[in-house]
């Protein structure tokens, strides 16, 4: 009886140690994952999109995949090449030469990504109309997460700090305004330049942190087993 009881106690003890070790290891994995996620968020790299690395042109669609994004109804042009000395909001909205982006035909336009991204800021200018308004909506899947309307100038770019975080689509809907005196055109086009965004990515430090945490956990379990 004593020998059988000792075996049962030994089996129970080993079972408890195994369960305890598994729980400890899973806890360490959860902690490491949390640390990696935190490091990933902090280490998100800002990307400045100037459109100046696209070919100088009088009008061309921004190709899907440019800077890892899909561009719906967005075109780019070189204001000087396109309009010469004729003043307009395309020239006024040029922050860095040579190119700007704009909504083709004054229609709504979108920036879409298969992965979540942070839409931080951009310079917006009305191409033809004073007091043009642009509603800018940020979506996470089908959920509308951000929705703000901005009033634009036709004579100077406005830096707008959106800070739309973790979205996968930014939808622009321009409307209203009146033709700016002296501009030889009218319409609801808006100009965009020097867009800043970020896509969170695991940093090398985060991956090292994960590996080190799991290694320490393994060493600790080996020491306890010994």
In short:
With 226 residues, the protein is of the alpha+beta class.
Describe the protein in words.
With 226 residues, the protein is of the alpha+beta class. The chain has two domains: 2-43 and 209-225, no CATH class; 45-199, Jelly Rolls, CATH 2.60.120. The chain contains four helices and twelve strands. Strands 1, 2, 3, 4, 5, 6, 8, 9, 10 and 12 form a ten-stranded antiparallel sheet that branches. A two-stranded antiparallel sheet has the order 7-11. The longest helix is centred in the first third of the chain and has 41 residues, at 2-42. The protein is elongated.
Rg calculated over all Cα atoms? 28 Å
By CATH, the superfamily of the largest domain comes out as Protein of unknown function DUF4465
- Helical residue percent? 25-40%
CATH topology of the largest domain: Jelly Rolls
On the 0-100 scale, what is the average pLDDT?
A: 83
Task: Please give the largest β-sheet.
Answer: 10 strands, antiparallel
Shape designation? elongated
What distance separates the N and C termini? 29 Å
Please tell me the total number of domains.
2
Helix-strand topology string = HEEEEHHEEEEEEEEH
- How many H/I helices? 4
CATH class assignment of the largest domain: Mainly Beta
> Low-confidence parts, pLDDT < 50 over ≥5 residues?
29-42
Structural class: alpha+beta
Topology, number of strands: 12
Would you identify the CATH architecture of the largest domain?
A: Sandwich
Strand proportion, as a percent range, falls in 35-45%
